[in-house]
Every structure is written in C-alpha cells, then in structure tokens.
Amino acid sequence: MYKILSKEYLNNTVARISVQAPYIAQKAKAGQFVILRSCENSARIPFTIARADTNTGSIGIIYQIVGGGTLELDSLSVGDSLNALVGPLGNPTEIEGINYACVVGGGVGTAIALPIAEALYKQGTKVDSIIGFRNKELVILEDEFRSISDNLYVLTDDGSYGVKGFVTNGLEDNILSGKTYDRVFAIGPLPMMKFVSLLTKEHNIPTTVSMNSIMVDGTGMCGGCRLTVGGKIRFACIDGPDFDGHQVDFDEAISRSKMFRESEIKSREFACNLYKKEI
Ligand SMILES: Cc1cc2nc3c(=O)[nH]c(=O)nc-3n(C[C@H](O)[C@H](O)[C@H](O)COP(=O)(O)OP(=O)(O)OC[C@H]3O[C@@H](n4cnc5c(N)ncnc54)[C@H](O)[C@@H]3O)c2cc1C
Ligand code: FES
To answer: Would the CB of 43 count as within 6 Å of ligand 1?
Structure first.
C-alpha cells in the first residue's frame, strides 16, 4: 500500500508524486488533505490532495522541500512505499453558487490552490487565477492553471517572468479594472494570505484562505493547529483548513508558525547532512 507510482520535479525544490491510495482517491474532494509518514519513525506531514484519480486508485501530492521531513520524503523513489497515509482529512472547500471567482496562489500554495480552481472551473464558475513566485526558476503549474482558468495572470517578485509584482498587485489591478468577483480564494504563505484578506476586506469581497498551521494528529486532539477566527478558537484540521480570511487572526498564526523554529533548523541540518542535499 501507499506505493509511489511516479515522481517528477517541477523545479529544484518542488516535486510531484502519485501514490497508490484507492480508498482516499474515491473519497477525496477539493480542499482536503492527507497526513503521511515517510518511514516508521518519521514526522507526520500534512499535504493537500492535489489530484485524486479513481481509475488508477492514486492521489497526487505536490511537496516543497523545506526541512527534515520533506527531505526524508524526497529520499523515496518510485517503487518505494510510504509508511503511513491517512485521509482525506479536513473539510472540502465550499464552492457552490459562485459565478465568478479569483483564485490566488503564492509559491507552493499554487499546488494547494490548483484542485480548488479546477473544481470551480468544472462546475461552470468563471475563474481568474493569479499565481505568484519569487522568480522565474520557481514558477510551477502554469500549464495546469492555464487549462482550468478563464484568465491566468503569472507574476514574479523580481519581474524575471510574467508581470513584475506581488499577487496582491495583480488582484488589486483586476478589482480596480472592474472585475466583480463573488469570492477570492487565497492560498500561500501566511503574510500573503493576510495581505490579500486586508485588500479584499477593503473591497467587500468574501475571501476564503487555507490555513497551513502546524499539524500533528489531524483529528482535533493535539491542539497544534489552533488558531483564532472571529475571536473564537478553531482547529485548522477539523474546522478547516478553509476559513473566512477577514476573520482570521493572522498575526497570532504567524507567531505560532515560528514556535518550533530551533528544532526545525536542527532537523534540517541533520537531514541535509544525511541526504547530502542543500536547501
Ligand atoms: C492542511 C495543510 C496542507 C498542506 N499542503 C501542502 C502541500 O500541498 N505542499 C507542500 O509543500 N506543503 C504543504 N503543507 C505544508 C507542509 O506540511 C510543511 O511544509 C511540512 O510539514 C514541512 O515539514 P518539514 O519537516 O520538511 O519542515 P520543517 O523544517 O519541520 O518546517 C518548515 C516549516 O513547515 C511548517 N511545518 C512544519 N511541520 C509542520 C506540520 N507538521 N504541519 C504543518 N506545517 C508544518 C512550518 O511552518 C515550518 O516553519 C501543508 C500544510 C497543511 C497544514
Ligand atoms: S492537528 Fe492536532 S488538533 Fe489539529
């Protein structure tokens, strides 16, 4: 079970794998995620289900190598099996009744945004997608987004590809040019989702964000993914991962995301030495 059926690199630090998981593939909906363990004693890592294929009984995961856990996952090859995989977890993204949506993805957040944009497009929603990266080398999933968007805008921070600027610039330009979005979906680094939400609040556009909080069990038991939404305590794994971007306390979420920085640095250094890789 959980055999890796294919693996390809989308850029130097982002890879896409497909994993044999027929039961998860049958049930998965856009916005849901899995938690996997690469080897017996590995950390549990949450990843969005980027694709579910009931014909082959497989799911797709797109991961960015950022630390010890993802380096360990990346050490596995086609034919190897994951030690454990649970899902689908979390609530599917609510997409019903939306006529015109803007899907905004930043960095590897574009991988999480892709199934949502695809589900919207397939149900007949008009979809504008705005995807942003630090530079040309990091651009991923452009063709995939083009095939499921009515309009696609690619931006890079340094202008080395597409339009120069941040995704918030692209979104603001579209809003000011008169595009009347029913809802914006923003997925990416916490500061990006914070600033998209501040912008859409100014323009009264309902906004969904996908919270990538630190998760351990994924079932509401450990408290790791706690966040504050509309003044109330919520758990990203069971109440989310999607929330109203105008209600999320992003500053608290950013501070909580740095809680384990020291041990993350140690684990990354250890894994870089073990796998002889620089990240
Ligand atoms: C619901 C959800 C869906 C996600 N989907 C994707 C995806 O599709 N592709 C992708 O590349 N990444 C995704 N992530 C983020 C991914 O889980 C982290 O990048 C990964 O856990 C990092 O592990 P690490 O050991 O390599 O890095 P570490 O060095 O341990 O951490 C690097 C950073 O990753 C984050 N992180 C660490 N551990 C966890 C954890 N257990 N849970 C969540 N975040 C953590 C922290 O912000 C940390 O600062 C998702 C996160 C969540 C919560
Ligand atoms: S991951 Fe443990 S409560 Fe959400």
So the answer is: yes
Which residue lies with its CA nearest to atom 21 of ligand 1? 45
pLDDT band at 128 (very low <50, low <70, confident <90, very high): very high
Query: Which long-range contacts link 206-209 to residues 24+ away (Cβ below 8 Å)?
Result: 206/182, 206/244, 206/246, 207/183, 207/244, 207/245, 207/246, 208/93, 208/94, 208/183, 208/184, 208/242, 208/243, 208/244, 208/245, 209/185, 209/242, 209/243, 209/244, 209/245, 209/248
Domains and CATH numbers, the chain: 4-89 (2.40.30.10), 100-257 (3.40.50.80)
Q: Is the CB of 70 under 6 A from ligand 1?
A: yes
Instruction: Name the residue with the closest Cα to ligand 1, atom 9.
Output: 63
Sequence-distant (≥ 6) Cβ neighbours of residue 186 within 8 angstroms: 104, 167, 192, 193, 196, 197, 200, 207, 208, 209, 245
Ligand 1 pocket check: which of 13, 71, 234, 264 to mutate, most ligand atoms within 8 Å of Cβ? Answer: 264
The pLDDT score that the predictor gives to residue 121 is 97
CB 236 within 8 A of CB 112: no
* pLDDT tens string 101-125: 999 999 999 999 999 999 999 999 9
Write the DSSP symbol of residue 183. Answer: E
How close is the Cα of 47 to the center of ligand 1, in Å?
7
Say yes or no to pLDDT of 278 above 80: no
Letter for the amino acid at 233?
A: I
Please give the model's pTM, rounded to 2 decimal places: 0.93
Does the pLDDT of residue 279 top 80, yes or no?
no
Taking the C-alpha atoms of residue 115 and residue 56, their distance in angstroms, rounded to an integer, is: 18
Give CA separation, 147 vs 10, 123, 130, in Å: 17, 14, 13
Enumerate the β-bridge partners of residue 234: 227
